[in-house]
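Q: Hand in one record:
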Amino acid sequence: MVFAFDVARPDPRVEELQRTATLQDILRTIPKQYFQKNPRKAMFSLVTNIFLVAVGYASLVLNPWGWLFPVLWLFTGTALTGFFVIAHDCAHRSFADSRRVNDFIGHLVLLPILYPFHSWRIKHDQHHRYTNNLAWDNAWTPLSVEEFQQAPRWYQIFYRTARTWGWWTASIGHWIALHFSPGLYKEGRDRQDMQFSVGVVVAFAMVFFPLLWWFGGAWAVLNLWLMPFLVYHFWMSTFTLVHHTVEPIPFYQEEQWNPVVGQLFSTVHCRYPAWVEFMCHDINVHIPHHISTGIPHYNLRPVHHALKEHWASYMHETEFSWPLMQHIITRCHLHDGQGGYLPFKDE
């Protein structure tokens, strides 16, 4: 369905879906071949992405025209977002059969954007286990009015910015707050993995930034790292926001949540320009990924079509546009306790 922003709450389809289907029922409607990994397709995506990133960086180094830099920053940052999607498959073990291969490639492709692979992998798994669960989801979960009013002033400013005009910076805050703090990870294997990945990122940064400064000073840091990094976070923030935070999509109290409504009904398929979808490996085809993280990125589209044959009335689709973003950042601020949203002016 395409969004109509006057959807009443509660949506009767949520209760109907909870009553009539389970996640296993949905999985059984997906042809089994779409869960199978194809090493050639995976490597083609990786090699293509390396080529695009290399073209982006080479163009930034060689470009003689000042007016062209914004276009090249957009291109390179979007290509880096493709790297993130490759790492995303690695984190879900849907890139390769070997855990070592997944971990190696995941660490490698996240280095240019300074993401610690295991830190992100562990926290992202939590998002998948509890999608749109107010108590446990850690991806853009809205605050209640009371939680917002009781939060420290600095956090209110950050939250208000991330939910309005500064939405495109929100994943930077998420990156800093969640992925470099050992206390947020369980003692044992999780914390050891997290500390290893942070160590890899820190070691890379200690070599990368001095070399970049030596190569071209502050301009090289801005041109070759900061601006593509900000473009990457624009896409990451936008994808994450639109995937789960649109007015017809509820967030649930823990006692009202179950996996089938979290993964099928509360995840959005959003169409972007073809060049974005190509460079970002169809991460926008997001409903299949939430039904099963074992589906590789190159099978997301056929799985989406298969799901629509059986579950179309419970699926949400929209198209990326400024009116869509404007609606989200002017209305989807705080949750009302019943699955709906309130704008800040009504807090």
Observations:
- Residues 1-8 have pLDDT under 50 and may be disordered.
